[in-house]
Amino acid sequence: MAEGQNRRMHVQDVSDDENIYNSSSSDTDNYNDQSENEQESIEDLLHNANLVQELSIEQSGKDVIFDIDSHNGWQREDHEPSVMPFEGRQGLRCDLPDQATPMDFFYLLFDEGMWDILVTETNKYAQRRIENENLKPYSRLNDWRDVTVDEMKVFFALM
Hints:
Blueprint: H1 18-21, H2 25-60, H3 102-109, H4 112-132, H5 149-158
């Protein structure tokens, strides 16, 4: 077999024990041929694995030396990182009711400014697509109308 070529191994699928006991001599011959091919394939795989292992060993002995980038603070020696003490206030920095609901937390992320951005950018995107593409006559974009904040909230609620 030429180097670099792959050989596919075939496994005989046996559904009953009867197929093993009632096989004819031609089945046995085919099985022996298959066994020899499988043995050759296994030997080829082992040989290729040994070559890869030898290459790995050769490569591991070759260290690549890079220039030190002292301008950006890179060095060859390892140092313990300096741990800066945290002096800020921990926890949420916002006003929430004492009995906050999941929606209160949701509205911390999706405030009115965020809804405005989502609606504005959605409408800009649709307008750019309408202007820059050759739309087919029955394209939904031909009937586009700007999305409102309430419609965007309904869309998010359905997701």
